[in-house]
Amino acid sequence: MRQSMPDSYRIFIIDDEPRMCESLSKLLSDRGYQVESSNTAREGLTRLSQAAYDLLLLDIVLPDMNGLEVLEFVHGRYPQLLVIMFSGFASIESAVSALKNGAFDYIRKPMEYEELIKRVDNALEQKRLIREKEAIHWALEQAQKRYKYLVENSPDIIYTLDEQGRFSFVNDAFERLLGVKREQVIGKHYSQVISANDLEKSEHVFNERRTGSRASSGVELHLRQPQTKEKNNGSGTKPEVPVEIKSQGIYDREPQDREKNFLGTYGVARDIRDRKLLEEHLQQVEKMEAVGRLAGGIAHDFNNFLAAVVGNAALAKIHTQPGEEIYTRLEEMERAALRARALTQQLITFAQGGAPVRIPGTLPDLIRDASAFVLRGSNVRCKYQFPDDLWWAEFDQGQIIQVIQNLIINADQAMSEGGVINVEAENVTVTPSYRIPLKAGRYVRIVIEDSGCGIPKEHLSKIFDPFFTTKNNGTGFGLATAYSILKNHGGYLYAESELGKGTRFFLFLPATDRKRVKKGEKTGSKLYSGKGRILVMDDDNSLRDVYARLLTHLGYAPTVVATGEEALSRYSQAKQTGTPFSAVIMDLTVPGAMGGKEAIHRLLEIDPKAVAIISSGYSNDPVMANYRDYGFKEVIGKPFTAEKLSEILWKALT
């Protein structure tokens, strides 16, 4: 059919009388029609093949071909071309034959011109109506195709129910989400696809009679496969799918019409599994942050207590000799306190404290070494798959080793009969469409997969909670710590598991283009003696006493204060009197007063060459990781041994 209407209709005349052709052409041209003519059938058919016409005026009697034969040919080749036949010699039978063979009209010669015009106008009016009908039909056909495409390719389930609540239509999304063909549910009651727990809740939304803003919207339910005799192409039963449903009543008239009849319900069910998964991730993040704040406070105070224990043990050892019973007991006390520090460090890391010292590096060797270390003597081995072009990442080596070892230990314990842990790494680019709470960008993703006992569904959402463990001797900090380490690195950690089939952990670390910067560090385990005045600021009274005694034993002259304000005052006075301090040790935070973070700026104003050492038992502040950027020369964490304190002072002052 034509896609656009011509400016005027085109008429072609085939008649063996030239004067008749000229007369009709002039008459019809005056009416606004485009007219062409021919005096022979063969020429006329050639012209018809070269251009499109709307109406053919055809004489039955032609010199080279019978008009009825021309009609038959035209009707077969150009079915949309209307034909009016005329003749002055034909019989009634020929007229009837012409009409039977597809002619629109028949006129006998001689003809009245008014009658001819009337017949032509009538024929072309019919042509116009045919065109309009075809245009409407084409538009409806396209609209039907378009809406069918939209409905069938919609990611949402679109359905209709009859007045009894039985499915009268479902789109292809029904099969995609629930794994059952539409013919298996058409005619069945909606309750057969509703989770048993949601049947009561579903009754209202699936029997919805309201329309417009009053209709049901945003109702969450779980859909399941209907019970059928067929086995759904061997695909097995799919799990229940959480959906959000919007529905409204269908009527034979406008909803406001009182005489309307209820025909059923129309509804749309949207798959919200991705949204639910993201909500779970975000809830986990919020929960970890809340518990982390609590854990951080506990860790800070506990480390101060440990520092006092370790410091006093070191002081007591000064008054005994190696080999004595009391010296041995003091060493055991010191070691026990330092082991407790390792547990506290996990709590600190979990609490988002102590920002990781991230250095660019590659992960494969680190992963292999960390895994091999914890699997020594085990009947479990690792199988690695790392691409040659794996991106570099920025990470704290010690913390990431801790993460890998925790996960490998869990995998090892899950496979008591032995087996293989698959460890893979790949480059991924996270986009907003990812179902995890990460910023868009480049990441290195590590997957650690075991084939062990798996994690029960009811436990999977709790495995990163602190204190949650199913092990008899577990602390419940391993996975919680790993989760927080990845979060502090700007990455993420989550798990998938199926009971009896194993568990997969997914680790994401931000990728980097930076090159590795290697740093050396001198360490030692002996006591370094020194000289000079040392100013110590710490809010804990027990620690101030420990500092004073240890520093005195190391050969220094200590002065201890509780706040940053006091430290600045003492430092300024000492400088003015010509007895300056060689170094200042400052606690990072002091509740209700000035801590080291604030005091360092004013201290450097007093003395730009001041040797300042920052100390803390816990902080989520980047000062501890980037202490030199803030003006400090060294950093010491709590608790610390006498050897460590002496080493830090020796490094700062030499």
Detailed description of the structure:
This protein is α/β, with parallel strands linked by helices. The protein contains 17 helices and 22 strands. The protein has helices at residues 18-30, 41-50, 67-77, 92-100, 113-152, 172-178, 199-206, 273-318, 325-350, 364-374, 397-414, 457-460, 478-488, 541-553, 564-576, 596-606, 642-653, and strands at residues 10-14, 34-38, 55-59, 82-87, 105-108, 157-162, 167-170, 219-223, 241-251, 262-271, 359-361, 380-385, 392-395, 419-430, 441-450, 492-498, 502-512, 533-537, 557-561, 583-587, 612-616, 634-637. The strands form 4 sheets. Strands 11, 12, 13, 14, 15, 16 and 17 form a 7-stranded mixed beta sheet that branches. A 5-stranded parallel beta sheet has the order 2-1-3-4-5, sandwiched between helices. Strands 7-6-10-9-8 form a 5-stranded antiparallel beta sheet. The protein starts with 9 loop residues before the first strand and ends with a helix.
Blueprint of the fold:
Blueprint: E1 10-14, H1 18-30, E2 34-38, H2 41-50, E3 55-59, H3 67-77, E4 82-87, H4 92-100, E5 105-108, H5 113-152, E6 157-162, E7 167-170, H6 172-178, H7 199-206, E8 219-223, E9 241-251, E10 262-271, H8 273-318, H9 325-350, E11 359-361, H10 364-374, E12 380-385, E13 392-395, H11 397-414, E14 419-430, E15 441-450, H12 457-460, H13 478-488, E16 492-498, E17 502-512, E18 533-537, H14 541-553, E19 557-561, H15 564-576, E20 583-587, H16 596-606, E21 612-616, E22 634-637, H17 642-653
